[in-house]
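Ops channel
N.P.: pipeline sanity check, posting one input/output pair.
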């Protein structure tokens, strides 16, 4: 029975594929805008990003959106269509 327990342990910390995109997006936003964004405030749906944060933060990110999307695509290979 030890073999089954150790085999199943590797599946305890599996995260959805969007979690890596969220992490990269948060890092790029911090680097380009200087805004500290939490991963829990980012939701990736239908190829785009929806933010659930303060409106001031959202407007700052929207102002830098073309640069953020360009960096995500060219440096990290993450394809995101829009940021709202």
């Amino acid at each position: 029975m030890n073999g089954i327990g150790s085999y199943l342990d590797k599946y305890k910390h599996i995260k959805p594929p969007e979690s890596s995109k969220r992490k990269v997006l948060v890092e790029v936003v911090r680097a380009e805008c200087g805004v500290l964004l939490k991963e829990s405030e980012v939701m990736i749906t239908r190829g785009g990003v929806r933010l659930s944060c303060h409106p001031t933060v959202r407007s700052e990110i929207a102002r830098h959106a073309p640069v953020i999307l360009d960096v995500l695509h060219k440096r990290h290979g993450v394809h995101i269509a829009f940021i709202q």
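N.P.: looks fine end to end. Strands lie at 42-45, 48-51.
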